[in-house]
Please model this.
Amino acid sequence: MSDDLSTAMLRTESVDKSFVLHLRNGLSIPVLRHVGLSVHEGECLALTGPSGAGKSTLLRSLYGNYHVDSGRIWVRHEGTLVDIASASPRTIVRVRAGTLGYVSQFLRVVPRVATIDIVAEAARGLAPEAARARAEALLAQLNIPRRLHALPPATFSGGEQQRVNLARGFIGNHPVLLLDEPTASLDGENCDVVIDMILAAKRRNTAIVGIFHDARVRAAVADAIYPVSPLQDAA
Amino acid sequence: MSDDTLLSARGLTLRFGAVPALVDVDAELWPGEVLAVVGESGSGKTSLLNVLSGRCQPQSGVVWYRDPEGRLADVHAMPQPALRALHRSDWGFVHQNPRENLRMGVSAGGNVGERLMARGARHYGSIRAEAIAWLAQVEIDANRVDDLPSTFSGGMLQRLQIARTLVTHPRLVFMDEPTGGLDVSVQARLLDLIRSLVARLGIAAVLVTHDLAVARLLAHRIMVMQRGRVVEAGLTDQVLDDPQHAYTQLLVSSVLQA
Model:
């Protein structure tokens, strides 16, 4: 698929990944085998499969958060293809800053920093004032009341923390966005907000790979499906 | 060694009697990059910091530093006055115990201004103004500028040390457990302060810590040391979330969840 090679924003070739547990006598658990997927500008690819099949492992591998055993993970970064699977840490830091965004399931931030600052800090290419204004608008869109913006999110509910995490993930307008269950702890109304944000990102030509447990959300945003199936605990 | 490398160490070896502190250690740092060195007590991480910064001579190996003009200098072959000048200007050192760096008999403002004077600043008014501006950056009230550090709390002393270190805009800062020994409530604020200052000023840093959470929040890259050897190195979140080496797996899985 030469067409794919020339236009895909993210594309994997035969990615294998296993976990070797040295504290369990070197037990090896294979999780991913021969993963080949691709996603283009303005497209959303949904990873599907039963719990424990390796969807999050795959998504984390695409971000360089997990180390893969073999294969390629090509990301189009500022016009050139970078292989996340073999890139140096410095290159991955640069690709994440410029191209590859990630919304994890859990918010992990410096304690005692105000919510507004956590979100504004993740903005790219905006002056501090503009970044704060954009952060406020995103938090408001995600129904985080203004009175909470100055508070650190540590005491927020799970759903509120997830929405802060989403604001932080979307403010950067990264060309490629990885979403790990972005609506897992959200109610129906907030799910609709997230669907709108994902559709708006697609219209801006963002390429998205996501895990969406909620079938309604998946149907609303996904253009294609990549099924991840559990491997036997071989070897 | 790439043309951009700020600091580069090759084959560092150091023994204290029969105890190996460093065994054939390589390290590299780019401008603006934060490298965390983690490991248990006695793993050699502080020895590495002392050798990289020229405070301690290795038995073998070499440390290169690239100055702002692009010239390479062998840190351990430098004459002592040149090394001291480097520590006063391009480099900074943040100790776990701020009293090792601060002059306890000199006012807070004097502690900050002294680094400027050592670099050649002479105008009293502008030195005082810059000292006050730096105290504000580290959230020390301007009306404490004439107070002695001995009247400060542990967290304030650490922030004062950071102001004293960063006032000359060093390109490279060595940090030895900068949040160690502080109350947890103070640690968070200090971490956020270090993170934002280092990012805004584009400072490169080598950070020694036994606290993996501190490494995760501050560092781009991480090196895991055990008995003087680097057993694993790489992107911070990859090493902490998907550790490959048995010792790193043990270290990561031993952390208590609060």
Q: What stands out?
A: Residues 102-169 of chain B form one domain. The longest helix of chain B spans residues 184-201. The mean pLDDT of chain B is 92.
